[in-house]
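Give me the fold.
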Amino acid sequence: VQLQASGGGLVQAGDSLRLSCTASGRTFSRTSVAWFRQTPGKERSFVAAMRWRNEIANYADSVRGRFTISRDVAGNTAYLQMDNLKPEDTAIYYCATSATSTTTPNTNSWTSWGQGTQVTVSS
């Protein structure tokens, strides 16, 4: 499977962005999709994940209540709606999929990764 992430950009604090992750090669069905983010010099960290079949989601504490993960089944696309963005949300955002249905924040459980999209939030 190949993942294509898009939607990043430069915004001001308090603004919103929606990231997209489209899969090609196979569908997300029977698996899960997740978003992680990474800043220079730091490890990739968990943001959100969703089981494709039933939309059960898991969020990092730092984004819960501000970010929403969702899906478009027909378009085989996952989204990350990011509201009330903060400067500390600045990072490269990656989408990933797993071979199983999971919402684990463990990076090693996610087997296929997109190329990343830059999100920059100015204060």
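The mean pLDDT is 95.
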